[in-house]
């Protein structure tokens, strides 16, 4: 089975080709994302039918070789990436792009796929490096002084995070002599091993923008061009969260110390992000702070889910990641359209006199429903699974925090939607809605997808049940 | 044995100094240098982890090589970004 | 084919939401056509469904979301009762709204969310388990918010914000209660006499907490004191919205939720054994008196009607909580009766405002001469609310009173008498001013009332009469209610 390596090779090939033939970059990108989506669909079908798949490249096993493993969790992450990719590509094609976008975007896609498929820690580190560099490039693409500064801070933080991860990997190798993911459970048994895991987790916290190491993130996500913001917020931070979840699964009961830390930091992020989102004056900044809050929520979910080998609460975290990816990408794309139409992104100026809210505002509202986690979205199903499990454990304080986070997200997102609903005396009689444009399709499609995902939650949940080989 | 601890102490010292610098300095160039020192410190720690009684393990050395390659690339990008930022500031 | 009837009924309003939302403002005829066609088709489908249900056919549509979590639509007699109410009143309110918003702005948005609102109500009616109920209940919150703030003024936004705080807060309570109950009992389908098995013995404290959470959740929409604060403020919305919020969708969804929780989740016997029925009845009694009391002092016509709603909706809760089949018949019948009476009052009040610019009780002088048709409809609605025989409101109050005696709670008679006196005290002055005071100088027509505004209140007023006079006919609300209650109490 060569699909696994194709999933990584294809985007990198596309990245190279888009550099070589910049005139055709957009169509190459479209072909690559479409092919990627098809590959993911076929991989998901295979995993459901026959269980996890594994591929050892060139016959070299880890630590020196590269092993790709596709299990249920990896498949869900790949599918999440593929869906968002299609929308990002569609959006990038309908707006005049900047030189350099396509190669960076394709490299990001390849790095993400590689990250989700990696079966060993060192390979994960390499994927993180590529992802980090491509993401910084995407941030800097806007070219404004603010974006450049944000990109610099992002890269510095990202590199420090990677080095911590590398240090952790080295330490874990010296403890166990292995770097494959099955070594994680061995690591949890010795104190040096746990230090190694803690170092890796600290690096991940920087990369995932987990509170209080999120300092670089709001500036980076809010100053990039809309498609890049959508990518960074929806997918790139998910890479680190995915690995955190993976460590929790592989570590089993021994990884409880990691989960406790995640739960505490996640709570902090959820509250701090919400607080800043409530006070934000610019729309993009509000959405970026909401990402801090949502990452906190996901980390909290991973943290309180308990031992993944004992119960299925961790699937809630995976569903929340999926839901957040779609909804947040939709939201950043919508915000891009709104800012483009208004010429600014001040929240107080959203109800501009001569313009009525249109498709972009509507997409924002639908995405907001998903982010708050109202039924029937996947976010709601995720919270449902989590709270139901926590009720069984009697963990009242975590339930209260989850509900508080939900209420806060409703509060800061309704700030925006309520502005969009202003009409009557605040809008002049001649004001028109913008006509429907192709540029709104991606945001609206993603937002609707996020909304309806809850109804189809059985599919990701079935996939998630397929264990790691 | 003594040299092993010396490497370990030097490596850890470099990592500590670099992290301190990174956390306190706002100067772009200083931070690029800080990151490089951090990487060197980590490389030393990696090399120590490869020293064993039965000879030297090649895997950590492979890690270090990969790390160096990545570091060179990232440093180049960082310097390019710093250059652009400085240009913007001068205008 | 006919097993998809519930889905078809849902889709007649849910399916047209995106179509209407994307319509350009200028497509007036098309929008009106789609709206009225969908509303008419829905009424026809509901009639078909109710015939099927009386013939003993059952409907079950399920969609699994996660293990132990499924969306379930069904059509039991209680669902049909609520469906019939909402589909008929939706048709009438749509006609009214088309006339009312003539020349207004943002009509596509308005009618889109209007349809979504009714779709959620229909979903609430046909929900076959607590999870499905919760899904549509939250959808209703979201769908009504844009309607409350439709006018777009700062006042409307303030009301909208308060509405959201109340309803989302209630939604959180309901969600938590639902999840907790699912964690304890597994899937919670709606089954007459409840589904809790031996839980009342094994986990009485948890069940009590769950009951409080669930009732608090639906109680916000049912405007139970002290959760009623949003309702009078929402009066800032356009008249058709007020009519819909107060007569059909929101408050009725809350009252209907209380019924489902009491009858089909806990079961009356369990509830009584747990000692939870009396507190609920007491809360309803307090709400009845407090709402009437506050209505007395409101000069704004719509606000007076709003407090009246607070009071009247709790008759339903009272009937449910009294644990007597006779009271239950009264409460359930009042679900329909209060709906048609209150919508009559609101539509007529909307006509006063549109036709004569009259929005306060003080300005009602001589309305009988200025707008005799609307005033007549208003009078029938008001007299029905007071409980004058043979109007619909009398029938419900009669059964509630008899049920109070049946349940060994003669205090209920006193409560009903007191409440009726208060009803009279806040409605009769309006009627007196309307019929017997001379119009004040300077009152002039601001707008001609077309048939689209005149026919709906006339129709609902006629329904108030018919529902009272023909109460013993088999398809009257009362007759249908007896059928439902026999399922719970036999």
From TrEMBL, chain A:
Molecular-function GO terms, alphabetical: NADH dehydrogenase (ubiquinone) activity
Topology versus the membrane: Multi-pass membrane protein
Domain of life of the native organism: Bacteria
Record domain NADH:quinone oxidoreductase/Mrp antiporter transmembrane: where: 118-407
GO CC annotation: plasma membrane
Keyword entries, A-Z: Cell membrane, Membrane, Transmembrane, Transmembrane helix
Biological process annotations from GO: ATP synthesis coupled electron transport
Matching InterPro entries: CPA3_Na-H_Antiporter_D (IPR050586), NADH_UbQ_OxRdtase (IPR003918), ND/Mrp_TM (IPR001750)
Transmembrane segments: 61-88, 100-118, 124-142, 154-175, 195-217, 224-245, 285-306, 312-335, 355-375, 395-413, 441-463
Locations listed in the record: Cell membrane; Membrane
Biological function: NDH-1 shuttles electrons from NADH, via FMN and iron-sulfur (Fe-S) centers, to quinones in the respiratory chain. The immediate electron acceptor for the enzyme in this species is believed to be ubiquinone. Couples the redox reaction to proton translocation (for every two electrons transferred, four hydrogen ions are translocated across the cytoplasmic membrane), and thus conserves the redox energy in a proton gradient.
Similarity remark: Belongs to the CPA3 antiporters (TC 2.A.63) subunit D family.
Annotated protein name in UniProt: Multisubunit sodium/proton antiporter MrpD subunit
From TrEMBL, chain B:
Membrane topology: Multi-pass membrane protein
GO cellular component: membrane
Top-level division of the source organism's lineage: Bacteria
InterPro entries per record: NUOK/Mnh_C1-like
Pfam (any one): Oxidored_q2
Transmembrane segments annotated in the record for this chain: 6-23, 35-56, 62-82
Keywords (A to Z) from UniProt: Membrane, Transmembrane, Transmembrane helix
Subcellular location: Membrane
Keyword ATP-binding: no
Name of protein: Multisubunit sodium/proton antiporter MrpC subunit
Automatic annotation (TrEMBL), chain C:
This protein's GO CC annotations: plasma membrane
GO molecular function: oxidoreductase activity
Chain ranges of the NADH:quinone oxidoreductase/Mrp antiporter transmembrane domain: 127-420
Membrane topology listed for this record: Multi-pass membrane protein
Major location (coarse): membrane
Subcellular locations according to the entry: Cell membrane; Membrane
Record's keyword terms, sorted: Cell membrane, Membrane, Oxidoreductase, Transmembrane, Transmembrane helix
Pfam families registered for this protein in UniProt: Proton_antipo_M (PF00361)
Membrane-crossing residue ranges in chain numbering: 6-22, 34-51, 78-98, 110-127, 133-150, 162-185, 205-231, 243-263, 275-293, 305-329, 335-353, 374-395, 407-428, 449-471
Domain of life according to the entry: Bacteria
InterPro entries: ComplexI-like_HydComp, ND/Mrp_TM
PANTHER family xrefs: HYDROGENASE-4 COMPONENT F, NADH-UBIQUINONE_PLASTOQUINONE
Job description of the protein: NDH-1 shuttles electrons from NADH, via FMN and iron-sulfur (Fe-S) centers, to quinones in the respiratory chain. The immediate electron acceptor for the enzyme in this species is believed to be ubiquinone. Couples the redox reaction to proton translocation (for every two electrons transferred, four hydrogen ions are translocated across the cytoplasmic membrane), and thus conserves the redox energy in a proton gradient.
Protein name as catalogued: Multicomponent Na+:H+ antiporter subunit D
């Amino acid at each position: 089975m060569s699909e696994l390596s194709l999933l990584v090779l294809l985007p990198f090939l596309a990245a190279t080709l888009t550099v070589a033939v910049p005139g055709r970059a957009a169509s190459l990108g479209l072909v690559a994302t479409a092919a990627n989506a098809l590959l993911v669909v076929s991989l998901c079908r295979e995993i459901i039918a026959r269980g996890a798949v594994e591929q050892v490249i060139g016959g070299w096993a880890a630590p020196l070789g590269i092993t790709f493993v596709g299990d249920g969790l990896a498949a869900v992450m790949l599918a999440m990436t593929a869906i968002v990719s299609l929308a990002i590509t569609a959006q990038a094609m309908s707006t005049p792009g900047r030189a350099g976008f396509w190669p960076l975007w394709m490299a990001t896609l390849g790095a993400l796929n590689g990250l989700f498929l990696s079966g060993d820690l060192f390979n994960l580190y390499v994927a993180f490096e590529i992802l980090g560099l491509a993401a910084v490039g995407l941030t800097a693409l806007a070219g404004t002084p603010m974006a450049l500064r944000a990109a610099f801070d992002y890269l510095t933080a990202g590199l420090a995070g990677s080095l911590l991860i590398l240090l952790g990997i080295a330490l874990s190798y010296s403890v166990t002599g292995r770097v494959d993911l099955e070594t994680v459970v061995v690591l949890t048994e010795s104190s040096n091993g746990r230090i190694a895991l803690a170092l890796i987790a600290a690096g991940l916290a920087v990369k995932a923008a987990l509170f209080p190491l999120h300092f670089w993130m709001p500036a980076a996500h809010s100053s990039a061009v809309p498609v890049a913001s959508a990518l960074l917020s929806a997918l790139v931070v998910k890479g680190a969260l995915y690995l955190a979840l993976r460590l929790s699964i592989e570590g089993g009961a021994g990884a409880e110390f990691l989960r406790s830390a995640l739960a505490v930091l996640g709570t902090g992020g959820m509250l701090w992000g919400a607080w800043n989102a409530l006070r934000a004056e610019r729309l993009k900044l509000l959405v970026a702070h909401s990402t801090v809050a949502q990452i906190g929520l996901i980390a909290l979910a991973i943290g309180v889910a308990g031992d993944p080998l004992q119960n299925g609460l961790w699937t809630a975290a995976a569903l929340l990641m999926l839901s957040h990816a779609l909804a947040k990408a939709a939201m950043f794309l919508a915000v891009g359209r709104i800012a483009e139409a208004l010429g600014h992104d001040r929240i107080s100026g959203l109800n501009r006199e001569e313009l009525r809210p249109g498709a972009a505002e509507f997409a924002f509202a639908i995405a907001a429903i998903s982010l708050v986690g109202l039924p029937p979205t996947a976010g709601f199903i995720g919270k449902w699974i989590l709270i139901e499990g926590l009720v069984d454990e009697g963990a009242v304080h975590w339930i209260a925090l989850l509900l508080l986070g939900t209420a806060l997200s409703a509060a800061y997102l309704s700030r925006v939607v309520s502005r969009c609903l202003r009409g009557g005396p605040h809008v002049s009689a001649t004001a028109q809605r913008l006509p429907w444009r192709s540029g709104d399709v991606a945001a609206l499609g993603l937002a609707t997808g996020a909304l309806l995902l809850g109804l189809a939650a059985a599919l990701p949940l079935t996939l998630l049940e397929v264990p790691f080989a | 044995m003594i040299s092993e601890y010396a490497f370990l102490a030097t490596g850890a010292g470099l990592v500590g100094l670099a992290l301190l610098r990174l956390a306190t300095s706002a100067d772009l160039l200083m931070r690029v240098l800080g990151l490089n020192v951090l990487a060197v410190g980590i490389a030393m720690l990696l090399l120590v982890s490869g020293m064993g009684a039965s000879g030297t393990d090649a895997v950590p050395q492979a890690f270090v090589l990969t790390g160096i390659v990545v570091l060179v690339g990232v440093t180049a990008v960082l310097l390019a970004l710093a250059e652009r930022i400085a240009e913007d500031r001068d205008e | 084919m006919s097993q998809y009837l519930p889905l078809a009924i849902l889709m007649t309003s849910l399916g047209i939401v995106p179509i209407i939302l994307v319509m350009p403002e200028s497509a007036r005829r098309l929008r009106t056509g789609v709206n009225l066609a969908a509303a008419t088709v829905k009424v026809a489908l509901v009639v078909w469904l109710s015939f099927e249900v009386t013939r003993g056919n059952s409907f079950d549509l399920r969609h699994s979301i996660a293990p132990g979590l499924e969306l379930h639509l069904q059509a039991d007699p209680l669902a049909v009762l609520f469906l019939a109410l909402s589909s008929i009143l939706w048709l009438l309110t749509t006609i009214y709204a088309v006339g009312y918003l003539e020349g207004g702005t943002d009509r596509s948005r308005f009618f889109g969310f209007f349809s979504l609102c009714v779709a959620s109500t229909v979903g609430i009616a046909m929900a076959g388990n607590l999870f499905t109920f919760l899904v549509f209940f939250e959808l209703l919150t979201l769908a009504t918010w844009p309607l409350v703030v439709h006018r777009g003024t700062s006042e409307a936004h303030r009301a909208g914000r308060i509405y959201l705080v109340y309803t989302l807060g209630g939604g959180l309570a309901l969600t938590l209660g639902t999840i907790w109950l699912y964690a304890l009992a597994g899937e919670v389908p709606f089954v007459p006499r409840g589904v809790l098995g031996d839980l009342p013995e094994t986990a009485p404290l948890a069940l009590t907490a769950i009951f409080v959470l669930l009732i608090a959740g639906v109680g916000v929409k049912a405007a139970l004191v002290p959760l009623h604060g949003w309702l009078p403020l929402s009066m800032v919305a356009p008249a058709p919205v007020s009519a819909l919020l107060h007569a059909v969708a929101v408050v009725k969804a809350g009252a209907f939720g209380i019924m489902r929780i009491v009858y089909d989740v806990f079961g009356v016997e369990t509830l009584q054994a747990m000692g939870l029925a009396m507190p609920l009845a007491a809360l309803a009694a307090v709400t009845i008196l407090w709402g009437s009391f506050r209505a007395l002092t409101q000069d704004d016509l719509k606000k007076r009607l709003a407090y009246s709603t607070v009071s009247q909706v709790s008759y339903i809760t009272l009937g449910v909580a009294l644990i007597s089949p006779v009271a239950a018949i009264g409460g359930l019948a009042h679900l329909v009766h209060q709906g048609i009476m209150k919508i009559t009052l609101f539509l007529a009040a909307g006509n006063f405002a549109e036709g004569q610019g009259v929005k306060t009780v003080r300005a009602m002088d001589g309305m009988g001469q200025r707008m005799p048709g609307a005033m007549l409809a208003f009078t029938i609605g008001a007299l029905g609310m007071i409980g004058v025989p043979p109007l619909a409101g009398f029938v419900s109050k009669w059964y509630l009173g008899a049920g109070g005696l049946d349940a060994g709670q003669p205090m209920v008679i006193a409560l009903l008498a007191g409440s009726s006196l208060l009803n009279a005290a806040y409605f009769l002055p309006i009627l007196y001013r309307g019929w017997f005071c001379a119009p004040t100088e300077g009152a002039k027509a601001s707008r001609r009332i077309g048939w689209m505004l005149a026919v709906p209140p006339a129709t609902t007023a006629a329904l108030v009469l018919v529902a009272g006079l023909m109460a013993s006919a088999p398809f009257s609300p009362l007759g249908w209610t007896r059928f439902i209650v026999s399922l719970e109490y036999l």
